[in-house]
Amino acid sequence: MAERExxxxxxxxxxxxxxxxxxxxxVFYNEDMLVYDLEDSVPASEKxxxxxxxxxxxxxxxxxxxxxxxxxxxxxxxxxxxxxxxxVRANPDALRxxxxxxxxxxxxxxxxxxxxxxxxxxxAGKIELICNIESYMGVLNARxxxxxxxxxxxxxxxAEDLTASMKAQRTKKGLEVFYARNAVLLACRAAGVxxxxxxxxxxxxxxxxxxxxxxxxxxxxxxxxxxxxxxxDVVNGFFTPSQKEINYALRVLDAVExxxxxxxGAVTLDGSMIDxxxxxxxxxxxxxxxxxxxxxxxxxxxx
Length: 303
Ligand SMILES: CC(C)(COP(=O)(O)OP(=O)(O)OC[C@H]1O[C@@H](n2cnc3c(N)ncnc32)[C@H](O)[C@@H]1OP(=O)(O)O)[C@@H](O)C(=O)NCCC(=O)NCCSC(=O)C[C@@](O)(CC(=O)O)C(=O)O
Ligand SMILES: [Mg+2]
Prior knowledge:
This is HpcH/HpaI aldolase/citrate lyase family protein. The chain is 46% helix and 15% strand. With 303 residues, the protein is of the alpha/beta class. The protein has an 8-stranded parallel beta barrel, surrounded by 4 helices. Strands 9-10 form a two-stranded antiparallel sheet. The chain starts with 10 loop residues before the first strand and ends in a 12-residue tail after the last helix. 41% of the residues are buried. The site of (3S)-citryl-Coenzyme A has 24 residues, from strand 1, helix 1 and helix 7. Magnesium ion binds next to helix 7.
């Protein structure tokens, strides 16, 4: 099995497989993950053309240093067989699998990917699987799905299909998917895979996007799917620790270290108690900052 590199997934930009212009443009934006879509953004009449376009893009214009995924149609759709044949041959970093409901589906897809990898001589096990959780059944089984197969490196919450399956109304505040977001996030944490948040569909509502992304970040998500280039910097910004957050994290570790030397388990900083979980959160902030390319060496802590 291939050794996994860790990839930042703050933003996953969908570019429709039936829009050659968007597919080319998407190469040049700041998203961490580019997702070429063969599923719901492609009408039935364009499925064959989209498959060819995505394959050609991957062969001739694949961006260097960018994590690229291909979203295939679901396991039970009439397009799955051709999609998986072409998508694996395009050798993406990951396949995004829509509408996953059971661990056995992930295992079946992983087995199919392995067969094709072997047939065409690709490194075994390198292509990752990102499972889109977009039904009540998927949410209920998220824990098993997240640990179904070593290829699984992330789960996403996909709110549009999910709310349709729940007979819920999709709102911007997102109360209807609050439980699902938490359930999927906890499943990801239990399995040690990344948790990716819902698409915010109104591309003209920046304030709404900010509120939605702040919520996702506070809940613990690692990133968010986006559909328009305007959404990328906003979302990257939320999932990259700010200077203020980094500075606070450094001060927490400083206080912990001083406490340790003085033989204390809990110390205070700015009047608040600092103990083990706060130290852990500070370490997470610094790990996220390093992953985002922020250099921490020699950084001074200023109150
Ligand atoms: C919404 C719109 C049509 C608007 O386009 P418009 O062209 O009107 O927008 P403009 O503002 O005019 O664009 C300004 C400039 O940006 C360029 N530009 C725009 N979008 C770009 C882009 N994506 N990539 C690269 N470039 C782009 C454009 O070409 C122009 O370039 P230029 O002319 O040079 O200035 C377009 O964005 C778009 O197609 N988005 C992706 C839609 C999609 O993939 N949906 C499926 C995934 S969600 C789903 O399935 C639900 C889910 O499954 C989710 C889950 O599972 O996670 C669930 O259940 O919840
Ligand atoms: Mg969907």
